[in-house]
């Protein structure tokens, strides 16, 4: 897929400023956004419309991109049995990663104790709804109306229908060849559109960061300093050691090309605080930078954008311990073990949008004796500062998806090793 490579080649004869790598431009936009936010203060909110427009451009592509990539990816696998095998490995992989990330969150919160002495007196309670049960999530995967699911962006339902549709095309064989060709061509079109949108990413990132810095401010962050430290350390540990370790010891690949090849998607995840918003970029870098087989990437990554929530799982476990410490609830080994298992499952149901994990929290805190009113108080305390925390924890969500896709492609012997290793030179 030419994607951004085609853009880069076309700009070869232009001034050097047009030849900056995407992540360089996004990083520049981020730095300038921090400066602008400090200078403008509360007036930075006037830039909100630019950031919102950028996110809407990305999210515009998410639902149709999920449908065409999963359907075409399953068709490319060529065998319904292979689809089932890949799906089983994908789910198990994400579940193990989530459990490991939750354990990191619990360990850091237990060690650093961010909830001890937390000043909840000024917090405003927030109305919360209890997260869907695993059974409700399972039933909700099957859409009553697939068109409505596409219109509403119901990701799990779109994934199910796309996979079902792809299997149907496979079973039809040659008579369905025009449909298969249409899906493949549609995937190429959508990925090219992603490349076009990424050209304005630095401007969108600039606006998003300026608003965060201008409205939140560094001084306000001191109120949740210990929790912010836990989130930053946890995100780094999950990303570098769990995901990097997976690439090194399970995929048998050098780690540096992986992180260099993934950085575009990581930067978009950081700036938008949304796993689903980073999906189009993750699909592009998996193909162009990491050499992941298109059939694997187009099947694994859309699923991962919904259930591959390592940063979310880490944060949910961390917040549960934070709440227990704030209210003086003692957690033993049994409760901690229960939280790891419950977090791994419940994090899959968290919405892949900014602050989506906060509204799954009641299902976890209830397990350790913290009632809904107390949980609402915790959410009210955290919510004003949650955007920067959400930005940090979205990075391991993104790297989790790319880790699983890269490793499974490697196991299937379908990884383009030359392209992967080339990421260290790009």
CATH superfamily: Sodium:dicarboxylate symporter
- Please indicate the percent range of residues in DSSP E strands (runs of 2 or more): under 5%
- SSE run: HHHHHHHHHHHHHHHHHHH
> What is the oligomeric state here?
single chain
List unreliable stretches of 5+ residues: 1-18
CATH architectural group: Orthogonal Bundle
Radius of gyration: 21 Å
**Average pLDDT taken over every residue:** 83
> What composes the largest sheet?
none
Kindly state the percentage of residues in helix: over 70%
* Secondary-structure content class: mainly alpha
First-residue to last-residue Cα separation = 17 Å
CATH fold node name: Proton glutamate symport protein
Number of DSSP strand runs: 0
What does this structure look like?
The chain is mainly alpha-helical. It has a single domain (21-80, 90-425), classed as Proton glutamate symport protein. Helices cover 74% and strands 0% of the residues. It contains 19 helices and no strands. Helix 4 (80-112) packs across helix 13 and helix 14 (310-326) crosses helix 15. Residues 1-18 have low confidence and may be disordered.
Which tags fit this structure?
426 residues; mainly alpha
Secondary-structure map with pairings?
Blueprint: H1 3-10, H2 22-40, H3 48-77, H4 80-112, H5 134-140, H6 146-152, H7 155-172, H8 177-198, H9 201-221, H10 225-249, H11 255-272, H12 275-288, H13 294-307, H14 310-326, H15 333-346, H16 361-365, H17 372-382, H18 386-411, H19 417-422
Helix pairs in contact: 2-9, 2-11, 3-7, 3-8, 3-9, 3-12, 3-13, 4-10, 4-13, 4-14, 4-15, 4-18, 7-13, 8-12, 10-14, 10-18, 11-12, 11-18, 12-13, 12-18, 13-18, 14-15, 14-18
């Amino acid at each position: 897929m030419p994607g951004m490579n085609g853009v880069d080649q076309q700009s070869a004869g232009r001034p050097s400023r047009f030849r900056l790598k995407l992540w360089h431009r996004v990083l520049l936009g981020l730095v300038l956004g921090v400066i602008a936010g400090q200078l403008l203060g509360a007036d930075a909110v006037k830039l909100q419309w630019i950031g919102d427009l950028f996110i809407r451009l990305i999210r515009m592509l998410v639902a149709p991109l999920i449908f065409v990539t999963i359907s075409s990816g399953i068709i490319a696998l060529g065998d319904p049995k292979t689809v089932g095998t890949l799906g089983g490995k994908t789910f198990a992989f994400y579940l193990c990663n989530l459990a490991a990330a939750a354990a990191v969150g619990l360990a850091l919160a237990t060690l650093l104790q961010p909830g001890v002495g937390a000043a909840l007196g000024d917090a405003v309670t927030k109305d919360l709804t209890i997260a869907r049960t695993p059974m409700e999530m399972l039933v909700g995967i099957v859409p009553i109306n697939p068109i409505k699911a596409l219109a509403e962006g119901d990701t799990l339902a779109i994934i199910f229908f796309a996979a079902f549709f792809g299997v149907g095309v496979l079973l039809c064989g040659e008579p369905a060849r025009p449909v298969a060709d249409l899906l493949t061509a549609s995937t190429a079109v959508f990925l090219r559109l992603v490349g076009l949108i990424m050209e304005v990413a630095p401007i969108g990132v600039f606006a998003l960061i300026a608003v965060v810095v201008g409205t939140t401010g560094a001084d306000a962050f001191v109120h949740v300093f210990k929790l912010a430290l836990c989130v930053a350390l946890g995100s780094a540990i999950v990303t570098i050691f769990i995901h990097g370790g997976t690439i090194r010891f399970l995929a048998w690949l050098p780690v540096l090309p992986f992180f260099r090849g993934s950085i575009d998607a990581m930067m978009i995840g950081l700036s938008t605080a949304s796993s689903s918003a980073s999906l189009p970029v993750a699909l592009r870098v998996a193909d162009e930078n990491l050499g992941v087989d298109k059939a694997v990437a187009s099947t694994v990554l859309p699923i991962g954008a919904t259930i591959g929530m390592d940063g979310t799982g880490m944060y949910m476990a961390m917040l549960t311990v934070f709440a227990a410490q704030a209210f003086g609830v003692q957690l033993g080994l049994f409760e901690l073990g229960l939280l790891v298992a419950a977090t791994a499952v419940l994090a899959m149901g968290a919405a892949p949008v900014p602050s989506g994990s906060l509204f799954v929290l009641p299902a976890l805190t209830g397990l350790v004796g913290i009632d809904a009113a107390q949980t609402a108080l915790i959410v009210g305390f955290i919510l004003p500062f949650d955007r920067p925390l959400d930005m940090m924890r979205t990075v391991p969500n993104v790297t989790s998806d790319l880790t699983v896709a890269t490793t499974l492609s490697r196991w299937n012997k379908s990884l383009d090793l030359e392209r992967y290793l080339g990421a260290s030179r790009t």
